[in-house]
Amino acid sequence: MKNRPYLYDVVMLLVGIIVISLDQWSKAAIRQHFGICDTSAYIPFPNDHFGLVYVCNNGAAFSLFAQGNALLLFAFIAIALAVIIWLYIYFSKQPSLLLKISFGLILGGAIGNLIDRFRLGYVTDFLMFSIKQIGFTFAIFNLADSSICIGIFLLMIYLWRRPTIAKRAPDTQNPDPTLVEPSPAERSSQQI
User: Fold this and answer.
1) What angle do CA 165, 169, 173 make, to 5 degrees?
2) Tens-level pLDDT at each residue, the chain (192 residues)
């Protein structure tokens, strides 16, 4: 089907728009409900292991570089975006729905977090997972972070399962007739 790659690009765009919309809506709802960044205000949802909290993340995904150098954070974000753009350009002609969905998730999540960073100066994080019995608390994250992780996971599946391009073997079906020795039957008929 000729239009399939075009339709896959449309799907990628729609996935990205949905991710950005849900991410921005959820962050606005958290900011409105909690009012100020306060990790002590925790709402268990649906149980004590998972809940909502409002954190102003000055770092990268999952609070990486939150206490670090702004230049290091900028370099990390720039390198991550360059890799995403390079991968997209490199694989842009591949007619794979899985590939396009993974790029839609990654780009939608990245754009969602960049909107916060440029508009607010920080990224709104609010999802918290913990197992209090063993003292484990995962980094607080948001829907954009989740989208990026799922997109990277799908991209790894694509790269692992993608069909390899077989090298073309030399054409042995049509040999040069001057280079082929005659069969024994042909030799005996030529001698007669």
Assistant:
1) 135
2) 566 778 898 999 999 999 999 999 999 999 999 988 877 788 887 777 888 999 998 865 555 555 556 677 677 778 888 888 888 888 877 888 999 999 999 999 999 998 998 899 889 999 888 877 787 778 889 999 999 999 999 999 998 887 664 444 455 555 555 555 666 666 666 665
Write down the catalytic residue from 9, 23, 125, 176.
125
Amino acid making up residue 18? I
End-to-end Cα, the chain, rounded Å: 58
Q: How many residues belong to the chain?
A: 192
Question: Is there a catalytic annotation at residue 23?
Answer: no
Of these residues, 116, 145, 171, 176, which one is catalytic?
145
Q: Name the pTM for this structure.
A: 0.73
Active site residue 38: no
